[in-house]
Amino acid sequence: MSDREPLFSKKNLGLLSNPLNSSNPITVQVLGICSALAVTAQLKPAVVMSISVIAVLAFANVIISLLRNTIPNRIRIIVQLVVIAALVILVDQVLKAFVYDVSKQLSVFVGLIITNCILMGRLEAFALGNKPWPSFLDGLGNGAGYGAILVIVGFFRELLGSGSIFGFKLIPESWYIVNGGFYSNNGMMILPPMALITVGVIIWVQRSKNRKLIED
Amino acid sequence: MDRNGNVYTFIYASAMVIFVAAILSIAAINLKPFQQKNIEIEKKQNILASVNIVADAQSATQIYSERIVNSYVVNASGEKIDGDAFSVDLKKERSKPVDQRILPVFECQIDGSVKYILPLYGAGLWGPIWGYVSLESDMNTIYGATFDHQGETPGLGAEISTTVFQDQFKGKTIFGKDGSFQSVIVAKSNETAPAEHKVDAISGGTITSKGLQQMIFDDLTAYKAFFNQKK
């Protein structure tokens, strides 16, 4: 057992932290964009969606990693899909039972976690060839990398589009033009195109900080 | 055993499907009561919203039991019949001929007078739209209305679920001065209609607006005999 890797070795921690920066699924690999645009008009659905994806991705990674030596090669994609689909349906049912209003807001997008490219990508590229623990960390890391971008986008869209954070009003009512003030919410921020532009700005900021990411 | 052989693959796939199906069924059965309760609470919130009471999920059941003093179902000739108003499936009722439908009525006590709440169900552009409208005890003046939808276009047709649109219905009348049934007309600005029956349609949401108008007309028409009795 002496040659066994410690649980939080540098390599394992890298699995957790790299997706937050230099291999971020949204800003670097540009995966999972569709749901990032759709659920980020407000912060609350963005947070719930992030938690759901982190949970599904981490567990799917572990399950596939445990099964990796038994899965018949020819149907491995199908097995991956079944695992993801089953977990997503569970998450959907739990949301419907315990946070009904959020589940209504997320509507079809919870179901669409199944088609989120990040999940299949991680299962195929990582979990099939690695032990459960690193796979778990990889799932957490990539889910968190996805979630971090969702939360940042959701923060700016809700702040500028609705003048609130988590539904709490931050802009005083008296500032609004209708009440004789000078301020008006930017309706564009609520629409999906501004989410794409916000993601674009994040990519821009990230690449100007991290020169290695710039392609020739 | 050969992991790439047909037999192994086949057994693997079958076992996996049965196992996953079992897990999902167990989860669905166990979570069903919670989900049902959420749907019920939402319905109560909607009913209360039509009489301009805002209730959150925690308080909805309590406020509902305090305010909704009576609920019953009537038939197309306005007679009370057996049945539970709350559990009527409007979608199913809509597919029946008018004289066979059962029509739910909820009575709400507000400031000493009774408001009558009637459910609506119709079609928008992309899917079903539904709502509740409450009438004063003169069975003519609208006290409040609330609408919801499954998948109308955000920013356009979906605006029917905003209070700005719904507040327009307050104080409108559904019968003309001569006593004839007029319903509510959801009109564009260039359409002429008597102001007491008219609300502004949603720009860019014409089909949803017209669907809403049709829904109100169809569903309130079915209650005509009930209205005449109560007046």
From TrEMBL, chain A:
The chain crosses the membrane at residues 46-67, 79-100, 106-123, 144-168, 188-205. It is an enzyme of class 7 (translocase). Pfam families: Rnf-Nqr. Composed of six subunits; NqrA, NqrB, NqrC, NqrD, NqrE and NqrF. GO terms for cellular component: endomembrane system; plasma membrane. PANTHER family: ELECTRON TRANSPORT COMPLEX PROTEIN RNFE, NA(+)-TRANSLOCATING NADH-QUINONE REDUCTASE SUBUNIT D. It is a multi-pass membrane protein. One of its GO terms (biological process) is sodium ion transport. NQR complex catalyzes the reduction of ubiquinone-1 to ubiquinol by two successive reactions, coupled with the transport of Na(+) ions from the cytoplasm to the periplasm. NqrA to NqrE are probably involved in the second step, the conversion of ubisemiquinone to ubiquinol. The gene is nqrD. One of its GO terms (molecular function) is oxidoreductase activity, acting on NAD(P)H, quinone or similar compound as acceptor. It catalyses: a ubiquinone + n Na(+)(in) + NADH + H(+) = a ubiquinol + n Na(+)(out) + NAD(+). Belongs to the NqrDE/RnfAE family. It comes from the Bacteria. Keywords: Cell inner membrane, Cell membrane, Ion transport, Membrane, NAD, Sodium, Sodium transport, Translocase, Transmembrane, Transmembrane helix, Transport, Ubiquinone. This is Na(+)-translocating NADH-quinone reductase subunit D. It is found in: Cell membrane; Endomembrane system. Its EC number is 7.2.1.1.
TrEMBL record, chain B:
Residues 124-223 form the FMN-binding domain. It is a single-pass membrane protein. Composed of six subunits; NqrA, NqrB, NqrC, NqrD, NqrE and NqrF. Belongs to the NqrC family. NCBIfam families: nqrC (TIGR01938). This is Na(+)-translocating NADH-quinone reductase subunit C. Keywords: Cell inner membrane, Cell membrane, Flavoprotein, FMN, Ion transport, Membrane, NAD, Phosphoprotein, Sodium, Sodium transport, Translocase, Transmembrane, Transmembrane helix, Transport, Ubiquinone. HAMAP family: NqrC. It comes from Gaoshiqia sediminis. It is found in: Cell membrane.
